[in-house]
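Researcher: Next entry in the queue.
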Amino acid sequence: MEISAHDVFTLVSHFQHRCQVYRMTGGVHSAALCDTESILVFSEDIGRHNAIDKIFGKCILKDMPTDGRIVITSGRISSEILLKVAKRNIPIIISKSAPTDLGVKLANDLGITLLGFARGKRTNAYANDWRIARDGE
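Model: Structure for this entry, 137 residues:
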């Protein structure tokens, strides 16, 4: 799977516009399951783990496959979050926050593309950035 940098920024923009409870309260986390073009499942919760669990629960209820998808989250990407994503064969995770050191190590070891601090037209690639096609390439 590969995604262009432009499509990453477009997905993150759509994600941020869906975060209505966060805009009203500033006190929740959001998570989304996406393909390279759109958000497929979205959830908000007070806990970052709960927001991730909710999107996967919705996928189970809808019999929606997660293989080869993208997860976007507002929360820190810890080793536990990364393992949840890896168990569902998701090759790319993007967050507007920072990853932990162990999260970065696991992403490298498991071959998952990890992007953090995704805001506006900028992001930091922490692991396996070969899945991100640079615009114009």
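Model: The domain at 3-126 is CATH 3.40.140.10 (Cytidine Deaminase; domain 2).
Researcher: Noted, moving on.
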